[in-house]
Write a structure and sequence with these properties.
The chain contains 2 helices and 8 strands, in the order H-H-E-E-E-E-E-E-E-E. It has 151 residues and is an alpha+beta fold.
Length: 151
């Protein structure tokens, strides 16, 4: 019977060691504790409000997000025609309103409808179901909630 030398044992050892290391790496894949860098600093979410019923008097739509939020009336447009700051409302055709909101994705909110003189026509509680439109699951990103409001 021939005895193996230490050198021969070392030449045979790399294969089992390499297989063991490979198995360890594959079994711990996804267990990384390295931080993930999210590049987006912030974004606005959007609530799409579809109106039905007597929509002619509606001149402005406001949305607030949260259980205890309050609808804030729109600021009047200056009489000289200069609008201060960007308009927070995008109106498509009077039926569909896209209203930017904060980054909050609370499931409760309110929709306020206003006439030309900024008088409140309707203030309704709504349930918000958010659908993420961009970003990532880990880092978040802009989302949209769709609601229907009857005037």
């Amino acid at each position: 019977m021939q005895e193996s030398t230490h050198d021969e044992d070392m030449r045979k050892a790399p294969l089992p060691q390499a297989l063991g290391l490979l198995a360890l790496l594959l079994s711990t894949q996804g267990c990384s504790t390295a931080p993930i860098a999210c590049t987006a600093i912030g974004w606005s979410n959007v609530v799409e409000v579809t109106l039905s019923g007597e929509i002619e008097p509606v001149a402005n739509v406001r949305v607030c997000v949260g259980v205890e939020c309050e609808i804030v009336p729109p600021s009047p447009v200056p009489t000289n025609g200069n609008v201060v700051g960007p308009s927070p409302i995008v109106r498509s055709d009077g039926v569909l309103w896209r209203v930017p909101t904060s980054m909050s994705t609370d499931t409760h909110g309110r929709v306020g409808l206003f006439d030309q003189e900024n008088r409140l026509i309707s203030d309704q509680e709504v349930s918000l179901a958010w659908q993420q439109d961009g970003g990532t699951t880990t880092c978040g990103g802009p989302s949209t909630a769709v609601v229907a409001v009857s005037v």
